[in-house]
Amino acid sequence: MLRGKHIVIGVTGGIAAYKAVYLLRHLQEEGAEVRVTMTPAATRFVGVETFAALTRHEVPIRIFPDPTDSISDNWTRHIQWAEWADMIVVAPCTANSLAKIVHGLSDSMLMATILAARCPVLVCPTMDGEMYQAPATRANLQQAKELGFHLMEPESGYLASGLHGPGRLPEPEVITGQIRSLLESAEQHAEKSPEASPKLLQGKRILVTCGATREFLDPVRFLSNPSTGKMGMAMADAAASFGAEVTLLHADSVDTSRLPGSIELIPFTTSDDLFNHVRSRADADVIIMTAAVSDFRPVQRHKQKVKKESAKLELPLEQTPDILQWLGDRRSGRPGEQVLVGFAMETEDLAGRAREKRIRKGVDWMVGNDLSDDNSGFAVDTNSVLLIGPHSENRFKGTKVDVARGVLQHIFVS
Ligand code: CTP
Hints:
Elements: E1 6-11, H1 19-29, E2 33-38, H2 48-55, H3 77-84, E3 87-93, H4 95-103, H5 109-116, E4 121-125, H6 129-133, H7 135-146, E5 150-151, E6 155-158, E7 164-168, H8 172-192, E8 205-210, E9 215-218, E10 221-223, H9 230-241, E11 245-251, E12 264-268, H10 271-280, E13 286-289, E14 296-298, E15 317-319, H11 323-331, E16 339-346, H12 350-360, E17 365-370, E18 382-388, E19 393-399, H13 400-413
Parallel strand pairs: 1-2, 1-3, 3-4, 4-5, 8-11, 8-13, 11-12, 13-16, 16-17
Antiparallel strand pairs: 6-7, 9-10, 14-15, 17-18, 18-19
C-alpha cells in the first residue's frame, strides 16, 4: 500500500522525537519514500544527521537555505516539498507546533510546507497530559479538525514528566496504519468524486441522528446499546464541511464537544424523544438516520425504582416506532423531494440484509456497517461500510470522518 508513496515526516521538539526514527524505518520498510524536516527545537532531541543518514536526503530546518549552502537557489523548497508529498505526518507534534499549524504560521520549513500542502496532513499531538487538556490546546485541536487536519489521539500512560495521562505518541506501527488508511481513502475520493468541493451541500438543510437511545424500565435502569455516536458525528461534521446547514439530534450520552459550532445540537434520550424531534424536522432536504435506535422497550416504565424483592424476573417488551420506516412511508410517492439515508449494522450477510432494508424502509441509500471487520463498529474511530443505492454499491474504508465524506460525496456528486 505504501510502495512508492511520498511521505514527509515533520519532527517537532518533544521527548518523543526519537520515536520518529522508528516511524521513518517502518514507513521505509513498507516501501514509502520518506523525507524529514525538523523544527529548530526538535534538533535538541535528535540529531539532523540521524534522519539525513536514514533518508539519504537533506533535512531542512529553516525555510531559507543557509547562506553558506552550496545550493542557493532552492528558497522555494517548502513549495516543492509540499507538491512532492502524498502525505505529511507531524510526529510528535508539540503544543507549540499545533498552535502554529492552526494559526497558519510559517516560521520554519515544516510550518511553511504544511501551509503550502494540498495533501492530507496527519497531526499526532504529543505532550504532557496537563498541556494536552489545557483549554487553549483543546481549542487548537478543535480548530485543527475544522480546518481539515487529521488528528491522531495520543495514548495514555507514563509520561516523561513522571505523571500518568494522555499525551504519549502512539507506536510507529499504529501511526503507519493510520497513514495507510488515510491514503487509501484519499485515493478512493480522488477516483470517485474529483469535483467535490466545500460548496457541495450549500443551501441544503440536513438532519443527522446519532447515538444510542435509552428505554427506561425505571428511573435507574434502561435498555440500550454500545453506540457512541461517532459515525453520526462524522456524518454531521462532513455535511457541515461541505457547506450544509446541519442539525444533529444526538443521544445525550454522546460527547459532541469536538464538533464545529455551526452545527445545531439537540439532545434526546428515548426513541420516543427522537421520534418527536424527527417528526418536527421531517421536511429537511436530507435525513441521515445514523442513530442506533432500540428496537424494543419495556411495556411499563415504573416511576419508582423496582425493588429486588418485588421484581418479576420477566420483562415484557414492545416494539419502538420505526422512525426511518415512518420517514420512508411519509415520503412515498414523492421521490426526489428528499434524500433519506439509513444505516444497517449487520453481523452476517451484510449486502443482502442492507439491500433488503433499503427497499423495505423505502429509503434512497442504506449504509451497511460491517461488524465482522475489526476496523469497524461501535466506539472505534475507523469504519468499513458498503453504500447501497438505487443503481450502485460501493465500499468505503478508513477513519469515520473520511468514510462520511466519501459517502456524502458519492451520494451528492454521482
Ligand atoms: N431505525 C429507526 N427506528 C427504529 C429502528 C431502526 O429509525 N426503531 C433506523 C436506524 O436508525 C437505521 C435503520 O433504521 O438507520 C436500520 O436499523 P437496524 O437496527 O439495522 O434495522 P432494524 O430495522 O431495526 O432491523 P433489525 O434490528 O431486525 O436488523
